[in-house]
């Protein structure tokens, strides 16, 4: 996923860009509001998410958010040290999709990025378009929760489907174990790690594609899209 990072502090931007890159993001760094607005021309410029720090040198971050929303529907996550409710409401009213308060946990930030990107329909997808995800010979029907390989339906449990659908919506992106547990099982990581491993193993076996879900040691899992 392409991500636009709007941050005037080069040291902060470099550190965060390195973390995001390790999790599969293609990061473009804008150091001011004007740079950010230019990067989003035309029509969002293919970015999946904008990570917008409000403390910018040339323009108020809230003003930049409003201008971004007028140009594109690309999800915007505001990043700020302001934690009061009024500031958060103001940002959301201007069109921000989420709000992260400094200092934040990197895992939480990654989870929020994935969450807002999944909630947003791509701008080039027409209304009423195909709601299936295709990964080589694998087809995932989101409304009917049906998965097929080479046209043959594969029976999955509810959690197996939820896990596969989560990974499949961002092929190549590494999902942290904690994030997967939170979004699929709606609980904390403690005591659930073994359950995740069992479900990953089951998916690999049922789909007969051991290499489809790759283990990223010490981090989590990512889906490797097979050849068509």
TrEMBL record:
Residue ranges flagged as DNA-binding region: 130-225
Keyword Transcription: yes
This protein's record includes keyword Aminoacyl-tRNA synthetase: no
Regions crossing the membrane: none
Domain Response regulatory: 2-117
PROSITE patterns the UniProt entry points to: OMPR_PHOB, RESPONSE_REGULATORY
4-aspartylphosphate, modified sites: 53
Keywords tagged on the record: DNA-binding, Phosphoprotein, Transcription, Transcription regulation
Gene3D superfamilies in the cross-refs: 3.40.50.2300, 6.10.250.690, Winged helix-like DNA-binding domain superfamily/Winged helix DNA-binding domain
CDD domains assigned to the protein according to its UniProt record, in alphabetical order: trans_reg_C (cd00383)
Domain (OmpR/PhoB-type): residue spans on this chain: 130-225
InterPro entries xrefs: CheY-like_superfamily (IPR011006), OmpR/PhoB-type_DNA-bd (IPR001867), Sig_transdc_resp-reg_receiver (IPR001789), WalR-like (IPR039420), WH-like_DNA-bd_sf (IPR036388)
Name assigned to this protein: Sensory transduction protein RegX3
Lineage: Bacteria, Bacillati, Actinomycetota, Actinomycetes, Kitasatosporales
């Amino acid at each position: 996923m392409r991500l636009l990072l709007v941050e005037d502090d080069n040291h902060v931007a470099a550190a965060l860009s390195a973390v995001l890159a390790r999790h599969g993001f293609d990061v473009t760094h804008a150091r001011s509001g004007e740079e950010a607005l230019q990067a989003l021309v035309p029509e969002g410029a293919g970015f999946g998410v904008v990570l917008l720090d409000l403390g910018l040198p040339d323009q108020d971050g809230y003003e930049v958010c409003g201008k971004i929303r007028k140009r594109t529907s690309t999800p915007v996550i505001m990043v700020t040290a302001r934690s009061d409710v009024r500031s958060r409401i103001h940002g959301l009213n201007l069109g921000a999709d989420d709000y992260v308060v400094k200092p934040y946990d990197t895992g939480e930030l990654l989870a929020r990025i994935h969450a807002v990107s999944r909630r947003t329909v791509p701008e080039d997808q027409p209304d009423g378009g195909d709601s299936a995800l295709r990964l080589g010979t694998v087809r995932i029907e989101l409304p009917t929760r049906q998965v097929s390989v080479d046209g043959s339906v594969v029976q999955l449990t509810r959690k197996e489907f939820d896990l596969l659908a989560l990974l499949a919506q961002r092929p190549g992106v590494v999902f942290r174990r904690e994030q997967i547990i939170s979004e699929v099982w709606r609980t904390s990581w403690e005591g659930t790690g073994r359950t995740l491993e069992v479900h990953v193993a089951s998916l690999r076996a049922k789909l007969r594609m051991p290499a489809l879900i790759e283990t990223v040691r010490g981090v989590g899992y990512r889906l490797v899209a097979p050849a068509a």
